[in-house]
Amino acid sequence: MPANPDLKSEQFEARITTVLRQRLGKNEKAAKDHDWFAATVLALRDDIIDRWIESTSRTHETEGKRVYYLSLEFLIGRLLRDALSNLGLTDEMRGALREHGIDLAELEELEPDAALGNGGLGRLAACFMESLASLDIPAYGYGIRYVNGMFRQRIDDGWQVELPETWLAHGNPWEFERRESAYRIGFGGEVVMTPGGARWQPAEAVEAIAFDTPVVGWRGRRVNTLRLWTANALDPIKLDAFNAGDHVGALVDVLRADALVRVLYPADSSAAGQELRLRQEYFFTSASIQDIVRRHVQYVGDVRSLPDKAAIQLNDTHPAIAVAELMRLLVDDHGLEFAEAWDVTCRTFGYTNHTLLPEALESWPLPLFERLFPRHMQIVYKINSGVLKQARDKGMSDGEVSAISLIDEGGNRRIRMANLAFAGSHSVNGVAALHTQLMKTTVFADLHKLYPDKINNKTNGVTPRRWLQQCNPGLTGVIREAIGDAFLDDAMQLSALNPLAGDAQLGHKILQVKRANKAALSDHLHGLMGIRLDPDAMFDVQIKRIHEYKRQLLNLIETVALYDQIRSHPEIDWVPRVKIFGGKAASSYHNAKLIIKLAGDIARRINNDPTVGDLLKVVFVPNYNVSMAERIIPAADLSEQISTAGLEASGTGNMKFALNGALTIGTLDGANIEIMEHVGRDNIVIFGLTADEVAAGRANGYNPRCIIEGSRELRQAVEAIASGVFSPDDPARYRGLMDGLYDSDWFMVAADFESYSQAQRQVDRRWQDGVGWQSTIIRNIANVGWFSSDRTITEYAREIWAVS
Ligand code: 26Q
Q1: Chain centroid to CA 552: how far?
Q2: How many CB atoms lie within 10 A of CB 764?
Q3: 355 in ligand 1 pocket by Cβ < 6 Å?
Q4: Is the pLDDT of residue 271 over 70?
Q5: According to DSSP H, which parts of 301-416 are helical?
Q6: Which residues are catalytic?
Q7: Is the pLDDT of residue 415 over 90?
């Protein structure tokens, strides 16, 4: 809280006027909505900048170690509410704007989401940035300033259509261009030998320019920097070409540079394998590593002490080429011996793995890699020979050695980025206990045998500022009334709610807040899609990227089965449900897009069937993004976390729902397992095969056809979908999708159906036991404080980065 709120409010009011006039060139009369938004951000920014500069000088003075988080994705969402809330200035700004006749809540809606990420991995990076600042840890996030982030999803006739999202259209008042922080990034060319050793002479080069965004921690304790790179042509116009009449050719470098930062690759679990993607990875990695080394040399001196002053975390393998890039700088530019450079490199890097899906493990064709990065290729070979020698010296078998190799020697040779990241890091972590265990026993088993001390677990977390305080002020208020304010600074303190789990008054208040959030969501969706939802029905939500392993299809098939049951047994007192789906499909992912269409087809049929009335409604919310999540999660009663066991590395939505008082229905996968351990077996609904059972089922020949034919409910639902009951306009639309279930069912939908369906009926019974439901959701809120990203970051800081 500021010392004098009224004074602060008046100061904002005056500042906004000044900014409007002097920075934006408008008076209050002429100002449009977006001018008010920009003026508000710029007025607030003045407060942020002072703390920003103060944070940086404090790190310089104490010569503290810095954390560098390299990520091709930062899925930030909006920043105004976050910054105001973390600075404790929300009421002051609201008051100032009111004096100008502007409503803060409406203004917040004008801010476009910064959607520079696909899903979980990118959102985790954003939560981590916020926690790093909140914990007062000096840190930089490094990434790409994509001109077009995640695509906007439109649903046309039920089908997903991807549209470019132009988040920078009205300018971005949060960012600062740093023209002085510019680096040359090379591609292609050759390696020449000089008296000083090998030198890379790239054939092309672009310039990377930094744009900095301040990241405000809780209570403004610290402001860190998110540094995003854009690309400029070194020679924007080739005058000789231009003068020779080749006006397009003269601009080709500009186009090439633009292309590098134009789009986020909109796939979340498959390696795209295109050259532009590899160029993007190297572009931002090289700029970041050059920036880190330059800062170290400038303020500390000797590059040999880099690991004492810098901890670089690789967010998956997307920046894994950093290992070779740092080696190149140390050996070629700073004259270190290879062995010494390798020691510095390994002590500097940590690598986080986010998926074990084979199709998501990055590898690049060796000829492509060699053509773009000839010097890095040499370095990779040399690293590899060292690694393989270690393996052989340890007596590992040929099979083990070839699994460890950084180069996949199969027909077409490829560079394995995970092996490079693993070898070049002192720490390799998974993102939930089960995932880390599976890393050790499956994908990384051989590397783990060679380096048994590297793999460790850091279970994911989410920031409780955005995902409780800001998105759910109603619930936050009720909790404060019940247990005081300590949980605002330490989410573990939510456990003070445990003794109140049986408190009917508290339970009632929480349900009142939940109902208000549901009513607000209903209003919003009514405006958006024209649908009316009953806030007294159970809101059953599955929002996440659409992927077969996440099994939206299991949920949809069960929805169809429930629909059948309601129609055949109208006498039963069914629990009214609203099934909410949301999520984007990768543009090239055919089945994922078909699943979206199926959700829409099922929704149309069920929502228009008067015999079920308000007992069952289905909605597919278009363009699911961070801001939509902030509306939906506080309104959810049931959280669907139903991936095939062993395939969801962690999940983070699962944590947000529980924190907002939803019950989880889930498999024993990812962080669901740890959520169960924290909230207690009785306060979560678990179903389905375990990861071991899934593996055994696959190994021993799994027969889905047999299961489908043996279950009347499942068979009827699958046949209804397959025969066109929901797609009379194109009865064969889902034939192939359903045939896939009969013939292979890789994600074991059939195997888990019965168990899932029973679990859903158990959810109904729990809902009908009002008192039990209240105590369950209080237990959930009380016991998921551990899933704060503050806890996660504290573990990274202590166990990987050695920063205090
Ligand atoms: C790779 C190469 C080329 C193009 C795209 C990609 C690519 C991009 C994004 C591959 C994977 C991703 C994203 C993965 C991801 O989001 N993983 C999720 O990470 C979360 C945070 O740890 C976990 O909670 C989720 O379980 C995991 O799926």
Answers
A1: 19
A2: 16
A3: yes
A4: no
A5: 306-309, 322-328, 338-348, 366-372, 374-393, 398-404
A6: 354, 544-545, 550, 652, 656
A7: yes
